[in-house]
Amino acid sequence: MKRILIVKVTSLGDIVETLPVVSDLRRAFPGVQIDWAADAAFADIIRWNPGVDRVLSAPLRKFKKARNWNDLKGIAASIGELRAEKYDVILDIHGVYKSAIIAFIARGRRRFGYLNQDLGERGAAFAYNARFGPRPLTDAWRGMRVSVADALGYRFDDTPDYNICLPALARDLEIPRGAPIAMLFHATSADVKKWPKANWGEVGRWLSERGYAIALPWGTEREREEAQAIAALMPGAIVLPKLSVEECAHWIQASEIVVGTDTGLVHLAHALQRRTVMLFAATSREHFGVNDPGRTVSIGDEGAPPDVPAVLSAIESVMGGPSHAAVRSPQTGAAIR
């Protein structure tokens, strides 16, 4: 096995949770070249993993929104880059039309995809000449690792290795170094995933009383207004400036605990080995949740958001867990723990 292409196009949380597949493949096939095809919006996150040799990206999401000619040219150029290598194996672990098209265009001897009943979009089946086994009875993130391992005939370590190496920042974020930081990720792309502002206020006050500095990130103007409304409910809370994903990752890394809804940045907190509490209200905790006893816990469920006492209990359950970051110093490359 010399060259492998992973196809996982979007979105932030899914990209983050796919990173352990790279570590699994490197252990199974020492010296293998691993490339990854993804939407340009998430390419930098993949580049944080030094186990990926080449990131092939195209502005698919951007073109869909704006229909810009330059984005179309970028997509066309990415096709040539995609076909520059011939792969022993192409792994479409996304399973929708756009990922299947990428897998089909790429040059490869075997193109693996999910069985029809496990595809996100049934029409994606046209692209494959090999299939993963039936979807295993486990969460989505471990399921990807099981599918790839079974298809290629190797075993993997149950503990996922995200192997994230955050790059040095171009500017100082002025992250406070006194009190421990608690980041509250209240914002989400879907209103049905949100947790009431009053509940965030109760959690923030509880954490403040225990000496935590509360940091509230946001991404859109509406989310900024919501952050300000939540900050007004708790003493001394910081509404952060607008941050890039990379800058937000550094804030997460500097935090002692992260509490947030089922969103990509909270998955990133889990991957960065922060103490993490993930809240579910509209999606399946069993399928999409993260769990690492003593450090990360998911609570609530589809149609059954957690109440404040449940969240406070979850925070207490991870407070006693070990704090050890699996990120590496941008200066030395050594693990920071």
UniProtKB/TrEMBL annotation:
Where in the cell does this protein reside? Cell inner membrane
Q: Which reaction does it catalyse?
A: an alpha-Kdo-(2->4)-alpha-Kdo-(2->6)-lipid A + ADP-L-glycero-beta-D-manno-heptose = an L-alpha-D-Hep-(1->5)-[alpha-Kdo-(2->4)]-alpha-Kdo-(2->6)-lipid A + ADP + H(+)
A single GO BP term for this record reads:
lipopolysaccharide core region biosynthetic process
Major place of residence: membrane
Q: Which cellular component terms (GO) are annotated to the entry? A: cytosol; plasma membrane
Single GO molecular-function term? ADP-heptose-lipopolysaccharide heptosyltransferase activity
- The source's domain of life comes to Bacteria
Provide this UniProt record's keywords sorted from A to Z: Cell inner membrane, Cell membrane, Glycosyltransferase, Lipopolysaccharide biosynthesis, Membrane, Transferase
- Asked whether the keyword Glycosyltransferase is assigned, the reply is yes
Enzyme class, broadest EC rank: transferase
Please give the PANTHER family that the UniProt record associates with this protein: LIPOPOLYSACCHARIDE HEPTOSYLTRANSFERASE 1 (PTHR30160:SF19), TETRAACYLDISACCHARIDE 4'-KINASE-RELATED (PTHR30160)
Q: What is this protein called?
A: Lipopolysaccharide heptosyltransferase 1
